[in-house]
Amino acid sequence: MKIPIRIIGIATSVFWIFLIIFSVSALYSIKDIKLEFGEPQISLTSGDRVLFSFPIAIANKGYYNLADLNVSTEILSEQNQPIAWGHSFIPIISKGEALNTTHNIELNLTELLQRSPRLMFNDTELGINRTVSMRAAEVIPIQVSSNNSMPWGAPLYNFTLGTPEFAAIVSPGSTARYRVIVPMSFENHAFFDLTGTVQGRMYNNTNMLIGEDQVVIEARQSSSYHGSLEFYVPATDLTIGGHFEVLFAAPFFNYGPLVVPYGE
Amino acid sequence: MVSETNSNSKGKLRKIVSRALKATMKGVILYVVYFVLMQFIAPVSEFIPDFQQMVEIFVTVYISLVIVTELISGTIFQHFLNTAKAFCIIVYVMFLLRTGIFGLTVGNMSLTVDIRLFLVLAMLMGLLGLAKSVMQAINYVNERAEITSI
Questions:
Q1: Is any Cβ of chain A less than 8 angstroms from the Cβ of B37?
Q2: ipTM of the assembly?
Q3: Residue A71 C-alpha, separation from nearest chain B C-alpha, in angstroms
Q4: What is the pTM of this model?
Q5: DSSP string, B82-145
Q6: How confident is the model over B23-61, as pLDDT tens digits?
Q7: 8 Å CB contact of B41 and A27
């Protein structure tokens, strides 16, 4: 009986020593894991998508390997609905290894702007949920999650149609017409240059379409746009009040009609 | 007759002193081991609330049991206390296992560390220790029974 007891005693002591040394050194190693996210690089991909590439620098200066490093990011709309997400997975990072990689998130701008047209005209903050999980020493699951926000700049911030200016065009032998010039301005706060077309339709107060125009717009990132829409309207159809309909068409989005009343 | 009694009491005193010394040594060694290990765990324990307190309580109870066990070694009570030590480990681990996942939230960031695997291993070893204590107790009673019958 004494020998089995002694063997159990020795085995227990050995296991305890191993467990204590391993757990203490593994927990101690956690503080030597460095994970840094750099500033995102924004680029455009085919299919109207925006690609956010976050450079990640990982340095494992601990005593053990890191396994199953998983970085996932979710971008949330104002209504806290996920609008874009990205995952990066690194199966193993050996001890003493420093690794640089990129974490990509694709954002479908067309879908986003169709779902939240407010984002076209208003600057706001989009939520970012980021989760980093890994297995320290290949056995201890660790998870770090953070909630941040990123600024969203509206491509058509402060879009305004000014007061229409009417100028009579009188040509002998034809019906009298008016040239209506409507000043149009906005600021491009978005992270991309905006190129596209604006189509304007002019209606009188009986909802009759009386004039149409289309202009090409080009506004670089963080710049203002000032232009105008021009309509040629028969004098007989013109009323004191009415409304304009504005339709936007750009590589990333189509939006409209935006109804802007005039003269009332 | 008087000299026999004197040598008996001297022998008992020597036994008690040697047990006390052994108990003190074991207590000091365990405390030094705990102290050294805590230096390593200190950075982690800053992030886990109440971690240090939990470890301290366990170490205090365990060292006390080790000292008392040593003082009463050679009696059946030693085995009772050995069993109590093993139970102490199991109960402590079970208490920790209720959570086993330590979380910390700082501002908008939260950290979660899952150490349940270690706790399960520690519990299994606690069970092994318990089995050993029971076997030692049985062995002790056996030997005593053999001596009595002889």
A1: yes
A2: 0.75
A3: 14
A4: 0.70
A5: HHHHHHHHHHHHHHHHTT-EEEEEETTEEEEEE-HHHHHHHHHHHHHHHHHHHHHHHHHHHHHH
A6: 899 999 999 988 888 887 777 677 666 777 888 888 888
A7: yes
